[in-house]
Here is the input.
Amino acid sequence: MSPTRRSALKAVVTGLCALVLCATPVAADARTSADLDRQLSRHLARMKKDTTVISFFDKHRWLLTDPRFEKKANLRLRTARRHLAATRAKAARSRRELARRKQEAQRIRFEAQLARSPAKAICHVFGSYCKQALQVARCESGVQTSAENGEYRGLFQMGSNERQLFGHGESALVQARSAYRYFVRSGRDWSPWSCKPWS
Here is the structure.
């Protein structure tokens, strides 16, 4: 084979390998929670079968030493133990992934609720400073995420420089987080804001 053809073949093989490596995680991530539930059910069913086999040989240990059955019995027991260990690991991975997805879904739902309620978003972000932050937001914007006054925007009426430094967005949650970063950076004393919680 000529060097040119060899180089072309190497390039094709390398490209195919890269394609397979890139495509594999996508395929794994494409599984739905229902797919994972079904997969976990299959793992549990397989574990039950292997556990039954192991339990059988625990109760009939003589099969493992009887010359008539020894070879097949030991092979069957080893296979069941090996499969059980592998399937347990797979089931644990499926459980972890299902738990992660459940937490992620809960987080998304929770953040969606906060995004619809500026007051809840502010209290969630500011924690023990909730009452103070609400007073400032009421004074600055009427607790409106769309409030504008010249260059000042959002719940806490942050200026363009502050928005560049600490972030900004349309949702109450994003605006509250940006304001909280500014609040912490400035010493937690509300000094950057015209409105104060005690005024």
Q: What stands out?
A: The chain has seven helices and two strands. Strands lie at 148-149, 152-153.
